[in-house]
Amino acid sequence: MNKCEKNDYAKAFIVLQVYENLLNPTTALKLGTIFKDLYRPYGKHHKKF
């Protein structure tokens, strides 16, 4: 066994989430997310150069 085979270079720990506050599929496609808590509408912003 060489050095690369015995070492762990990365591990991921993912906490399980409860899927709540969901949008219906039609609305979710329009807004770009199925989670109500993640949707934040953007106001109009004028760029100044």
From TrEMBL:
Lineage: superkingdom: Bacteria
Taxonomy of the source species: Bacteria, Bacillati, Bacillota, Clostridia, Eubacteriales
Pfam families from the UniProt entry: CotJA (PF11007)
Organism whose genome encodes this protein: Clostridium saudiense
Protein name per Swiss-Prot or TrEMBL: Spore coat associated protein CotJA
